[in-house]
């Protein structure tokens, strides 16, 4: 841009552009939006970033995000501690909580085994899971990792570690999504739905 | 979400969700991204917001964004001060600067007249423009407001104020966009392109 530089604005645009899913145009648009905020709102925005970063850490039991020592699920008295639902990401916990189907506690791995991205079992919170299952109350581990190659590999890896300990390891069912259209289901999903068919 | 609340995280998600073009899912994704930043990067991000907000204001001549008293264009010695290019938004200046076609200076209105959104001429930087054209060096004003109803109305309104002062007021040409497909051009654009046809 011939001679037109406003360094603090460019730095702000760069910061927004580095966020996931935001391109240069959106970053510009957001930066202008921030400049049009009141001074208080902009300060509150900056503060929210610092606050979240400073106060949020991993739950000492399940490794989910929390601002206390234990996360709300591990703190609760109404959860079934004999079942642990293992997920890749904190967002998966939010998704599962919305179903109201899980009375169990969670364990967040913070990723999945992916040799291509250089993520091995040691980078995941698997040691913490193994420590938890040493408690005799744990009877079942539900593998709720993503239905991807990486999620599948992670589920297999963990199940091989847990089964020798006499723990029941289950996996979320594969099948056609509710409200979906058979015509648009891919063959692998459809084959899994046929394999897993249930009595009516 | 049954019992699952992490207030600093929710506040951060809310802040991102309030930005233009970011929905709840993206806001969550971005918030997790911020939590995964190093402490220094998160602090630098928060700082970029505060810095931009504190140091950027309107150029005292053309009302474009700048961190100095004058913007880089108004500061430059190589600009033709006899022509002022009037735009709605600072982003339009960036777009026009990329063409390298404008040797003129700019004037940023910070909006367009829009009775439906309650934006009248008084909310725009029109007074500042009128003050600038009192200087005898100004000979032409190019109306480069958007090709929308609001942009058009604003261009008409300002041209009626300027013409009695003996200033030449021009408007960007309408026509088919370069690289576009005639088939997909709307009728209004096509009519304007025919009206404005030029000798080859």
Briefly summarize what is shown:
The structure is a homodimer of 200-residue chains. Chain A contains eight helices and six strands. Chain A has helices at residues 7-17, 24-36, 39-55, 72-75, 90-99, 126-133, 149-162, 187-195, and strands at 57-58, 65-66, 80-87, 104-108, 140-143, 168-171.
Report on this model:
The structure is a homodimer of 200-residue chains. Chain A is 43% helix and 12% strand. The first copy, chain A, has eight helices and six strands; from the N terminus they run H-H-H-E-E-H-E-H-E-H-E-H-E-H. The first copy, chain A, has a four-stranded parallel beta sheet with strand order 4-3-5-6. In chain A, strands 1-2 form a two-stranded antiparallel ribbon. The model of chain A has no long low-confidence stretch (mean pLDDT 90). In chain A, helix 1 crosses helix 2. Chain A is of the alpha/beta class and 200 residues long. Chain A has two domains: 7-55, RecR Domain 1 (Helicase, Ruva Protein, domain 3, Orthogonal Bundle); 77-171, Dna Topoisomerase Vi A Subunit, Chain: A, domain 2 (3-Layer(aba) Sandwich).
Keywords:
four-stranded parallel beta sheet; Dna Topoisomerase Vi A Subunit, Chain: A, domain 2; alpha/beta; Helicase, Ruva Protein, domain 3; globular; 200 residues
């Amino acid at each position: 841009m011939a001679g037109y530089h406003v360094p603090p604005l460019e730095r702000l645009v760069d910061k927004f552009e580095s966020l996931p899913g935001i391109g240069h145009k959106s970053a510009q648009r957001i930066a202008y939006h921030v400049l049009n905020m009141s001074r208080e709102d902009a300060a509150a925005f900056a503060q929210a970033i610092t606050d979240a970063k400073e106060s949020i850490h991993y739950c000492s039991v399940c490794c989910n995000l929390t601002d206390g020592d234990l996360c709300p699920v591990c703190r609760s008295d109404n959860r079934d501690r004999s079942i642990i639902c293992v997920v890749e990401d904190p967002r998966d916990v939010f998704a599962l909580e919305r179903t109201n189907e899980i009375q169990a506690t969670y364990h967040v791995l913070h990723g999945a085994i992916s040799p291509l991205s250089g993520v091995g079992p040691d980078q995941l919170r698997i040691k913490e899971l193994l420590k938890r299952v040493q408690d005799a109350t744990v009877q079942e581990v539900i593998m709720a990792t993503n239905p991807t190659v990486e999620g599948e590999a992670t589920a297999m890896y963990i199940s091989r570690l847990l089964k020798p300990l006499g723990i029941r390891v289950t996996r979320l069912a594969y099948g056609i999504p509710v409200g979906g259209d058979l015509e648009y289901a891919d063959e692998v999903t459809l084959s899994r739905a046929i394999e897993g068919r249930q009595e009516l």
